[in-house]
Amino acid sequence: xxxxxxxxxxxxxxxxxxxxxxFSSLVSSINSNIDKITSEFKARLxxxxxxxxxxxxxxxxxxxxxxxxxxxxxxxxxSSISSFTGDDTINFVGKIDGAISDSCGLFNLTANADINKxxxxxxxxxxxxxxLDVSISNNIAGQKLxxxxxxxxxxxxxxxxxxxxxxxxxxxxxxxxxxNSFTITSEPDSVIRxxxxxxLADSMNVIFD
Length: 209
Fold this sequence. Notes:
The chain is an alpha+beta fold. It has helices spanning about 25-45, 55, 80-85, and strands at about 1-10, 15-20, 65-75, 90-105, 105-120, 125-140, 150-160, 165-175, 180-185, 195-200, 205-209.
């Protein structure tokens, strides 16, 4: 089904969505992939926990509706939504463009964001004037995370994490062939220059190269 949605609000956000999809199948595809990916990561991080058993043993539905959608969101101010929901965990101002598709279980998502402002829980993570590129693919019928791939690249002029400040910072995170890696770099103009590489192992162990 061909669909299009265009919503504009001068105070909160503008949203534009178009493509060949129906909303019910699209939401089902996104939720199923999120459930599988998060449950498999939980199983890796907490291998001895019984919490993940019910998720990792279940089969996820494979949709063959050939969904495809492109989207654009321009977020202006979330304060009115936060005051209504009572949840001010995330404050974001910026624009996100991307695409989502699902062809018989082969799921793809891209997102390219220009971030004017981002705050997580007031001051745990703060940044402005940043760009974020996300590319995720997953075969929901694949075994565990063998057919899950992800690349996340963040470039920020200013980044504060739990009161630790770094200027001109890049964060590069990848997951391919069931292996993950990350690189964090701050440029010479930073208060503290930083370069580190590593990966996240089982049971929340971080290995630095």
